[in-house]
Write a structure and sequence with these properties.
- It is a single chain.
- The chain is mainly alpha-helical.
- Among the domains are: 367-514, no CATH class; 541-621, no CATH class.
- Helix content is 56%, strand content 6%.
- The protein contains 22 helices and 9 strands.
- A hairpin with a 7-residue loop joins β1 (21-23) and β2 (31-33).
- The longest helix is centred in the first third of the chain and has 28 residues, at 137-164.
């Protein structure tokens, strides 16, 4: 692994502090946090900026800084711009407080807007303030890992605050916890109300596009529709159980209907309010088209998965109300993954729709980026529910191809359309936002390279087949080389991201400020890489079988030596025999997890036994 993820994360922290922790604008020597970067400050961008600080520390124990006595020297050095071991967690707690209090409306209700990420289609018209201020699905999604990371940090910091004996800090910490839970509850209800189920007939435009996508065998349309309905039977049954928020069956039970499910870009139009919630203030009127977007589906699924992570469950971070609502999100997570895995591998034949790159959406758009998003949704299902490496290897081959087609592992051509994926990015029209008395608007998605790196490590972590895993890791190294070249090299934003012109030289844009949207994607990829590096190595089935056979032979010969009385020989020989026995015992303990290690230990035991046997024969013959 070329990345050295922990060191890279420390470098990012140091660069982020240098960029964001600035002298106050009033001319005093005091420093203050600068929110925003390439885009103006908003709830989405500021959450990404803050997550760059919080997320790695909660996912990787050796990067934590909540306990001053347990903070490593490397972490203290990286965050030294914020102060010493005691000042660092206090300042970060206040950054969390600042964010939570900054992104609220006039009544103090949390907002989840991403106005700076929206771009006008008609540049001659000004966007309405209501458009810029509308809650977006990515805002809901980011609020979940941000809130959970902040709650974990505060739980770790609380004992230190108690030891300090400062009542003001205790009150401040408790206040921050309360406003975090308010934002978290609003984010959960927001995701429940932005879930979309879109139905259409087989003979309309959307239906024809979906059939063309999944009909890789050239079968009659009516047969494809019937097969689709058969494979989706359990999915439809699950949709019937969705009674909270938006979604439900929405007409999918009609025998001739096709459908898509996932998350829209915001709360869908006519989404019902969620009753029996202690705080309904964040349940604003829905404006988005009731249709799923692949990008917003991916960010929603990743956020929901964090609600059920081991860290969250073990620490009991959620309130009873949050847990109850999260169960409704878990149903959506499961059914959405199963739906897209079904569509991606429809028919289960020699060629999947996913393998016919690029993916084509039902509104007629084709981009390699969409293939990558489908991989992101389907990976977990291929790796667990469907069980086995066969499906994962096919998905891994798609990821390798996407690295080539995305001009990451191959050089770009003149006028190459693939460069558009990196900048200005793939555009998603925010259908419904024009109803707020403003122009049509789009959302640019520019995170192809770091998202690909995340998917490579995600798939590699699920693979058991060593050769397939090794291939993915080789490609991951190449993707990291590509990302390293796109790091900003000078100025205040040095060593943050993104400067695509340094790789794609035909691009005219040169940036002075960081993109927190891109940087947090890199941070997430590095956290995955660090977790992968700390996991158990892949096991070779053939090597495991060979190690077992070798240990059977070693143990048999060892038993023979004990029967011959070698264990009762002189002290030196008896000690060597006991040492061989311990080696064999240790090899048997690790053979299932580390067959290569067990094999090596078995070989050593056999060599030692052979030497002892030969020595015994020499002693008997007097040679």
């Amino acid at each position: 692994m070329k990345m050295q993820p922990r060191q890279q994360l420390l470098d990012i922290w140091k660069a982020q502090i240098a960029y964001s922790w600035r002298p106050a604008e009033d001319g005093s020597k005091r420093r203050e946090w600068h929110w925003g970067g390439r885009n103006d400050s908003d709830a989405v961008g500021d959450a990404q900026q803050l997550l760059c600080l919080l997320y790695p520390a909660q996912e990787l124990p050796d990067l934590r800084y909540a306990d001053p006595d347990a903070t490593s020297d490397a972490v203290l050095e990286a965050l030294s711009g914020l102060g010493d071991a005691v000042e660092i967690p206090i300042r970060i707690m206040r950054l969390v407080k600042d964010y939570m209090e900054k992104h609220v409306d006039a009544d103090g209700v949390p907002v989840y807007s991403g106005g700076s990420n929206m771009h006008r289609v008609d540049r001659t018209r000004e966007a309405a303030p209501e458009q810029r201020g509308i809650d977006v699905t990515e805002g809901f999604a980011l609020a979940i890992p941000l809130s959970l990371a902040a709650l974990t940090f505060l739980a770790d910091f609380a004992p230190t605050v108690d030891r300090m004996g400062r009542a003001d800090l205790v009150r401040e910490l408790e206040h921050v916890q309360r406003i975090i839970h308010r934002r978290l509850l609003g984010a959960i209800t927001g995701l429940l109300r932005s879930f979309a189920v879109s139905t259409f007939d087989a003979d309309d435009d959307f239906g024809r596009q979906l059939i063309a996508l999944i009909n890789v065998d050239g079968q009659p349309d009516r047969k494809i529709v019937r097969r689709f309905r058969e494979e989706a039977e359990e999915i439809i049954a699950t949709l019937r159980t969705i009674t909270v928020g938006s979604g439900g069956t929405a007409g999918v039970e009609a025998p001739t209907k096709l459908f898509e499910i996932g998350w829209s870009w915001s709360v869908v139009e006519k989404a019902p309010d969620i009753p029996d919630v202690s705080d309904t203030s964040t349940q604003r009127v829905g404006r988005a088209e009731d249709a799923p977007y692949l990008y917003f589906t991916v960010v929603a699924l990743e956020a929901i998965a964090t609600l059920f992570s081991d860290r969250v469950m073990r620490r009991n971070l959620l309130t009873e109300e949050e847990r109850r609502l999260a169960q409704s999100l878990q149903i959506r997570l499961d059914v959405t993954r199963r739906y897209w895995a079904m569509v991606a591998s429809f028919g289960g034949g020699s060629k999947w729709p996913l393998e016919d790159v690029p993916w084509r959406t039902t509104d007629g758009l084709e981009y390699d980026y969409y293939s990558l998003l489908v991989c992101a949704v389907a990976t977990e299902t291929f790796g667990s529910s469907r069980g086995g490496d066969d499906d994962l290897i096919r998905l891994a081959n798609v990821l390798v191809e996407l690295a080539n087609r995305g001009r990451i592992t191959r050089r770009p051509l003149v006028g190459d359309r693939a460069v558009e994926m990196h900048f200005p990015g793939v555009k998603a029209e925010l259908a419904g936002i024009e109803k707020l008395d403003g122009p049509a608007m789009i959302w640019n998605m520019v995170d192809f390279a770091p998202l690909l790196l995340k998917r490579l490590y995600d798939a590699a972590g699920l693979l058991v087949t060593i050769n397939a895993r090794a291939q993915l890791l080789e490609v991951a190294d190449l993707v990291w080389d590509h990302l390293a070249r796109r790091r900003i090299r000078d100025g205040r934003a040095s060593r943050l991201w993104d400067q695509p012109r340094q790789v794609f030289t035909e691009l005219p844009n040169h940036f002075e400020d960081p993109s927190w949207h891109f940087t947090i994607r890199v941070v997430e990829a590095m956290v995955l890489a660090a977790q992968f590096a700390g996991s158990e190595p892949a096991r070779s089935r053939s090597l495991e079988a060979l190690a077992h056979e070798l240990l059977v032979e070693a143990e048999h010969i060892y038993d023979q030596e004990l029967l011959r009385g070698s264990g009762n020989a002189g002290p030196a020989l008896a000690q060597e025999i006991r040492s061989v026995g311990l080696t064999i015992r240790h090899a048997k303990e690790v053979v299932d997890e580390r067959p290569g290690t067990a094999f090596s230990l078995g070989v050593k035991a056999l060599i030692d036994l052979d030497r002892l046997i030969a020595a015994g024969r020499d002693a008997e013959t007097g040679v």
